[in-house]
Amino acid sequence: MDTNKLTTLGDLWESHTSPNYNIDSTRTYVQQTAEQYANDFEASDKDLYASAVFKNLWNKKVMYLGNKEVIGDTWGDIQYQSELFDDSVDYTQPDYPIVFSNGGLEGEHKQRYRSFYSDYNIWTGEAKTGHVWQAYSSLLDTIQNNMPGILASRLSGSAQVLNIECRGTKRNILLTSDPYTSNEATLNEYRGDTADAILDSGVYIVRINKDSHANIKELHHNEKKLFCNQWIYVVDYGATLYLDREIHHTTGVIDNLQIIQYPGSTVKINTHDRGNQWRNIDIQAYQDTTTIVNGSTLLKNSSSANFIDVHHKGNNGNSSIKYKSAIYNSNVGNFIGQVKVDKRAVGTKSIMENKNLLVDPEARAMSKPILNINTKEIECTHGCTTSKIPEDELYYLETLGLDKNSAKSLIANGHIQI
Amino acid sequence: MKFENFSIAIDNKRLINDFNGDFANGETTVIVGPNGCGKSTFAHGVMGRNDIQVGGKLILNEINLLDLETDQRAKAGVFVSWQTPPELAGVTSFGLIRDVKKITGSEMAKELKTFKGFISDVELPSDWPNRQVNVGGSGGERKRAEMVNLMSIDPRIAILDEIDTGLDTNGLKLVSGIVNKRRSEGKINLVITHNKNLLDHMEFDNGYIFRSGTLLKVSPQEIKDTLTHGYK
Question: What is the CATH number of the domain that holds B71?
Fold first, then answer.
C-alpha cells in the first residue's frame, strides 16, 4: 500500500484551484480523477479508492452560511450521543475554549495573555519573531519536507502555535470548529469571508511542555465546511496529552495528525467519528513512551478512512491501537494500521485491534493491519474482525420491546464504546 | 390470555397440537415437562422467534398476538425471561432499560433510583446499572438480571423459562417473592421449571404438563408429585 499516493487528493485540489474556481467544478474534477486513479490500482486497493469516502466527500451538499439547520440528527441528539461516552474528563466547562476557523486559532485569552509568560499562549502567523517561533518554523519545515499528506500546509500559508505549559496542574482545553459553541463574532467572520467558506484549512501546532498535563478536546462540528487540517502535537519529556476528538456530521474532514512523543511522555487519543473523514494519524514515539489510540466510528450516512501509523523509535515503548466501527447502509469503513518498530526499539510492546460491525447487509469494511518489525525481543500482536449483528442479540432486544431499528442502533452504539 | 388451537413446530417437528387454554389475571401457572419436549420453544413461540412455526390463535385484549411482530408482542404486555440471555458488549444494564422504556432526560434520575432499588431487591452489586449487559456475569447473576428487567418493564404477562437454573437458594426465594407479588397485583405468570425447590415458596394456581404433543391441565399437587417422582 503506497500511502503517499493518497495525498493526491490535495494535489488535485491545489492544481485545480484557479481564480475562477467554484466548489462544484472542483468537486466534479476531483471525483473524475479519483475514479480514473482507482482503475490503476490493484483490486484490493481499488476498494479503498472507490469507497464512498472518496466520493461522498465531494458529493455532499454544502449548506451555506447563516443557515443553522442541522443535517440529520439534532444538536440535542448529538449531545445525547456524547453522553454515552464515559469521559474521564469533564469538558463541559473547559478552562480555555479555542475556536479554529479560516486557518486561525481564536482563544478568549489570546489578547490578554499574549505578552505575558503564561501557561497558555497562541503564537499567530503575525508574530513570527523570537526563538520559539523559529524553532517551530524549522520543525514545520522538516515535517513539510518529510511527511506525506501535508495537505493543509499547502493550502494555507500560515501556521498557528498553541503553547501549553502547566507543570503540576492539568489544563482542560476545548478546540472547536463549532459555530454553535463559539461566539457570534466568529460566525460573523465566517459570513464575511465567502472566499474560503467551504474549505477551512490550517496548520496547528500544539506543544505540551515538559511535565505538563493537558486534556484537549477537539470538536469538529460544521456541515457547512470541508476541513483540511494539519495538526502537529509535540509532547515534551514526561508530558501527558489526553486528546479527545469528536467529529459530528461534517461535510468532510481531511486531516493529518502528527504526534511527536518525547521520551517518558504519554499520549492517549480517543476519536469519536460521526461524519465523513479521511484521516492519517502518524505518531513518532521515542523511548519509555505510552501511546494509546482508540477509535469509535459510527457510519450512518458517511464513510471513513483511518490510517494509523505508530512508529517506535526508542526502546521500551508501549502502544495500543484499538479501532471499532459500526457501519450502516452501504457505507464503507476503512482501517489501515501500522506499527513500525525500529532496530533500536527493543522491548516494545504493542497491540493493534480493529473490530467492525456491519449493521446492514450492504455495509462494507476494509481492514489492513501491518506490523513492520525490525528488531528482536518485542511483543506485538494484531487482530481484526468483521462481523454482522448476531441474530440472538437482535431477537433478545425485540423480546424486550425494542423495534428492529432501535435494537440495531443499541447494539451498534454498544459495539463502538471505547 | 387465551390460547385457541395453538400449535407449534420447529424444523418441521410438531411439538404442540391444538392447545386450548385460558390464563386468568392474578394466576400463576407452573409448566413442567421432560427435556426436549418443547417448553422453551413454547415460550419463544409465544414471543415470535422467527425459526418457530405457530398455528392457531393467542388472544390478549381481543388481539391475536400471533399477528404481531416480536417487539409489538412485548409492548402488548408479554415478557419472556431467557435461559441463557446473550451478552451485549458496550450496552449498560440501565442503558438497555432506558432505551426499552424510552426514558428521557427529566425522568432519568427517578427511573435510575427505581432501577437501583430493583438491583438491591435481587441482591446484585450496586454498580450493576453501569455494567455491560450479561458480560462476564455468572449464570445466577444473569437470571437475577432477567428478574430486574422483568420488574422494570412490569409486563402484564411474564413467562419465566427455567429461571431457577444457576440460582442459589436465596435466589429461588427472591424469584418466588417477585412472582407472588405480581400474582397479588393481578398479573399473569407462567413459570416453566424442573425444580421443585422453586415451588417451595411460590404460590400457584394451576399446572400444565407436556404430554404426547399437548399441554395437560393438572392440579398444583400433581405438578409437585411429578417433579418429585418423575414423568410417567
Answer: 3.40.50.300
